[in-house]
Amino acid sequence: MRKPDSKIVLLGDMNVGKTSLLQRYMERRFPDTVSTVGGAFYLKQWRSYNISIWDTAGREQFHGLGSMYCRGAAAIILTYDVNHPQSLVELEDRFLGLTETASKDCLFAIVGNKVDLTEEGPLEGQEKGECSPDLDGRGCVTTRVPKQVHLEDAVALYKKILKYKMLDEQDMPAAEKMCFETSAKTGYNVDLLFETLFDLVVPMILRQRAERPSHTVDISSHKPPKRTKSGCCA
Ligand SMILES: Nc1nc2c(ncn2[C@@H]2O[C@H](COP(=O)(O)OP(=O)(O)OP(=O)(O)O)[C@@H](O)[C@H]2O)c(=O)[nH]1
Ligand SMILES: [Mg+2]
């Protein structure tokens, strides 16, 4: 198996759509999912680097495993459901504590999924300039609900996390860049989410490589020790 150069972890409450987001990105589809048990990962090649993306279980019974999955992570995707305010609250109350084992310069993205179910979200096929045949006066589907969690709430949480982690806002990517609204169902913003993170993680890989002590020995500059008559080194 190829060795990952970096690690990204998806965290968040059960049912928010972590598995669906990862499958949408990696497999380009929106299959039926079953609630995740433990964790699983995909390996993504991005340029010449291998990035592992870990999907974790949101169910309370697997909570203890979370910090193990986060160990050494370069980026964490904190996922909530835009229709369930409690899922955003849980990110701070239950999941943030699991990220202590992540890399010290770990990046955070906050992702509100299932935006297709809200009135504000883009319509299925809208990115392609299409609309559903099930029409209202504007030519679009109407069975959608007002959004329960707004992007500003995610931005506020992002800023709070930086404070909690004692990270300087100046040194970190801006909240507006790291807070996303997505739909695993339609694919809305899913590529943008993952690929923004990949591009941010690559310089971290390069930095780590530069800092890591080299294990190679330059044998051309190595002089053999002089031998004395007794056979001992001078
Ligand atoms: N409408 C809509 N449904 C979604 C979306 N993403 C996921 N779902 C549905 O939400 C349910 C839960 O999705 P999962 O991806 O299994 O959720 P999860 O966060 O991985 O849940 P756990 O593995 O239990 O932690 C499934 O029925 C999905 O089909 C989305 O963007 N829009
Ligand atoms: Mg899952």
Order of helices and strands: EHEEHEHEHHEH
The tally of domains stands at: 1
Q: How would a crystallographer describe the biggest sheet?
A: 6 strands, mixed
What is the helix tally?
6
- Please identify the structural class as seen in this structure: alpha/beta
Question: Terminal Cα separation, in Å?
Answer: 47 Å
The CATH class assignment is: Alpha Beta
Strand order of the largest sheet: 2-3-1-4-5-6
Helix content class: 25-40%
Bound molecules: guanosine-5'-triphosphate, magnesium ion
Percent of sequence in beta strands: 15-25%
The low-confidence parts are 128-141
**In CATH, what is the homologous superfamily?**
P-loop containing nucleotide triphosphate hydrolases
Which architecture name does CATH use?
3-Layer(aba) Sandwich
Q: What name does CATH use for the topology? A: Rossmann fold
Mean pLDDT: 87
The tally of strands reads 6
Shape: globular
Cα-based radius of gyration, to the nearest Å: 23 Å
Features:
single chain; 234 residues; alpha/beta; Rossmann fold; six-stranded mixed β-sheet; 6 helices; 6 strands; binds guanosine-5'-triphosphate; binds magnesium ion
Quick synopsis:
This protein has 234 residues and is α/β, with parallel strands linked by helices.
Structure description:
With 234 residues, the protein is of the alpha/beta class. It has one domain (6-122, 150-211): Rossmann fold, CATH 3.40.50.300. The protein is 28% helix and 17% strand. It contains six helices and six strands; from the N terminus they run E-H-E-E-H-E-H-E-H-H-E-H. It has a six-stranded mixed β-sheet with strand order 2-3-1-4-5-6, sandwiched between helices. A hairpin with a 2-residue loop joins strand 2 and strand 3. The longest helix has 22 residues, at 190-211. The radius of gyration is 23 Å and the shape is globular. It starts with 5 loop residues before the first strand and ends in a 23-residue tail after the last helix. Residues 18-19, 33, 35-36, 55 line the site of magnesium ion. The site of magnesium ion has 6 residues, from helix 1. It catalyses: GTP + H2O = GDP + phosphate + H(+). One of its GO terms (molecular function) is metal ion binding. One of its GO terms (biological process) is phagosome-lysosome fusion.
